[in-house]
TrEMBL record:
Keyword Transcription (UniProt): yes
InterPro entries linked to this entry: HTH_HxlR, WH-like_DNA-bd_sf, WH_DNA-bd_sf
Identification of the protein by name: HTH-type transcriptional regulator
One of the Pfam families matching this protein, by short name: HxlR
Key words of the record: DNA-binding, Transcription, Transcription regulation
Residues annotated as domain HTH hxlR-type: 12-109
Keyword hit for Cytoplasm: no
Length: 164
């Protein structure tokens, strides 16, 4: 899964990028990190990955420089995961996947996430340029809120995990 393993013999940037983040579980892990999750259990709950699957994806993301581990507890030793600059640089890919999914993979469901441009206070919809003021926007420029159904889905996952 790391960029040095499978496609080191190609100059193709798409192939190399797919090695870093080209599977469902890695994309979902990154989604959770962008949504503010930093701890293993939080990420596991929302991705529904097995502990082994999540651990392997986090290790690969760390090896590729996308995330960094930081201890938050000494006894027992526990780490949280934070996006690096390289990890944040991947955000436009997730944003594009979101836009594609909202446009092509849903029916009449509400938008899962709403993004409001902090500078002007208007919803940017699925764009990366604010339709109100015309400014290009990055994640750091936006306030996010979940749609009701997406929020309920995430709450249900958390409750189901705690009932185990």
């Amino acid at each position: 899964m790391t960029g040095t393993k499978q496609t080191a013999d190609t100059n193709c940037p798409v192939a190399r990028s797919v090695d870093v983040a080209g599977d469902r579980w890695t994309i979902l892990v990154l989604r959770e990190l962008y949504m503010g999750a930093t701890r293993f259990e939080e990420i596991q709950i929302q991705t529904e990955a097995t502990p082994q699957m999540l651990a392997s994806r986090l290790k690969a993301l760390e090896a590729d420089g996308m995330v960094a581990r930081h201890p938050y507890s000494e006894k027992p030793l526990r780490h949280e995961y934070r996006l690096t600059d390289k990890g944040w640089a991947f955000y436009p890919v997730i944003y594009a996947l979101r836009a594609f999914g909202e446009n092509w993979c849903k029916h009449d469901e509400e938008v899962a996430m709403h993004f409001v441009h902090r500078a002007c206070g208007h919803d940017v919809g699925l764009a990366n340029v604010c339709p109100h003021c015309g400014e290009p926007v990055e994640r750091k420029d936006l306030d996010a809120t979940m749609g009701e159904r997406f929020a309920a889905e995430r709450t249900a996952r958390r409750e189901a995990f705690r009932r185990r």
